[in-house]
């Protein structure tokens, strides 16, 4: 198979499941104005690509040489994801009922959407880091999946393969965010809350799984 196509297929397959990164994109796509939403998405793509490259080239060797790092990585990742998930669930619980019949308010870019208060730059950056570099699943999956893929690819084909992996991350993120931006004006506030709660539950569940894995290793 062509290495570019292979990289695209593997990258899309790894990005598609609903995990912390897609849950974060759901939050961004539903709550932020257009400019900030796409800026946050670009940050996620950049961090995701760097995680993929690191996992493919370095993390696999590191974990093989020092298996004891698995427990600290899982513990830190569990704590971060549980914190992020709890914050998502708390915000949906404490959100005030809007005055508009459909729950739509006007954001700073003129698009219909919920208020953007609380989405500081620090929170955007921390959220993107939490679902990429601070997410042990992303690092471990990159190490196992992309590391093995790189190992099985000819040296001359590696640049094209890596290009396919990077393009897959950008295509998936842009596609998901584009769909969210297209449909968010049609969602009533209650529906938005349930979508965000589902995202929060996913993040908490993944964090609990990491904690259980860390305890199991110990």
Automatic annotation (TrEMBL):
<dbReference type="GO" id="GO:0015171">
    <property type="term" value="F:amino acid transmembrane transporter activity"/>
</dbReference>
<keyword id="KW-1133">Transmembrane helix</keyword>
<feature type="transmembrane region" description="Helical">
    <location>
        <begin position="124"/>
        <end position="146"/>
    </location>
</feature>
<keyword id="KW-1003">Cell membrane</keyword>
<feature type="transmembrane region" description="Helical">
    <location>
        <begin position="158"/>
        <end position="182"/>
    </location>
</feature>
<dbReference type="GO" id="GO:0005886">
    <property type="term" value="C:plasma membrane"/>
</dbReference>
<protein>
    <submittedName>
        <fullName>Arginine exporter protein ArgO</fullName>
    </submittedName>
</protein>
<feature type="transmembrane region" description="Helical">
    <location>
        <begin position="71"/>
        <end position="90"/>
    </location>
</feature>
<feature type="transmembrane region" description="Helical">
    <location>
        <begin position="194"/>
        <end position="212"/>
    </location>
</feature>
<keyword id="KW-0812">Transmembrane</keyword>
<keyword id="KW-0472">Membrane</keyword>
<dbReference type="InterPro" id="IPR001123">
    <property type="entry name" value="LeuE-type"/>
</dbReference>
<dbReference type="Pfam" id="PF01810">
    <property type="entry name" value="LysE"/>
</dbReference>
